Amino acid sequence: MEESEKLSAARAVRRAVLGDAYVDASAADPDPVTADFQDYVTAVAWGAWARGGALTNRDRSLLVLAMTAALGRMEEFRLHAGSAHRAGVTDAEIDELLFQVTGYCGAPAGVAARRSVKQVRAERERAARDGAGR
């Protein structure tokens, strides 16, 4: 099946936001069902980003962070918290977002998201130190 322009655009946005390493690892599974599933997720979720509209990628990233935190989907929250800078989201904006999440979705969602942010930042700092020491 030939790749549609919409899927191609969605893939490009996904790669720009999540990074090559994550996308390449997701696509590495040789199982054809997994490949179809990845295309479906990309078309549905990232297609919403690629369609344009009034929201910027920064806006969309903040919304994804809020929704995944509210739903308690911490694995996805961590992925997006670690990639949000590629969409133009600052650490200060994520910190403020957690106050909103806690206020509107409850302390368990906010605390879990805060814990995830701290882990993401610690990993980022470790990687920066390890990279600087080379």
Task: Characterise the protein shown here.
The protein is mainly alpha-helical and 134 residues long. Helix content is 79%, strand content 0%. It is built from seven helices and no strands. The chain has helices spanning 5-18, 20-27, 32-50, 57-70, 74-83, 91-105, 107-132. Helix 1 (5-18) packs across helix 2 (20-27) and helix 1 (5-18) packs across helix 3. The chain is globular. It starts with a helix and ends with a helix.
Task: Tell me briefly what this model is.
This protein is an all-alpha fold and 134 residues long.
Name a few traits of the molecule:
134 residues; mainly alpha; globular
Mean pLDDT, nearest integer? 95
Percent of residues in helices: over 70%
Structural class by helix and strand composition: mainly alpha
* Continuous helix count: 7
Which stretches are low in confidence, meaning pLDDT under 50 for 5 or more residues running?
none
Strand element count: 0
SSE arrangement, N to C? HHHHHHH
Major sheet: size, sense and barrel closure?
A: none
Q: How far is the N terminus from the C terminus?
A: 44 Å
Measured on Cα atoms, how large is the radius of gyration? 16 Å
What oligomerization state is this entry in? single chain
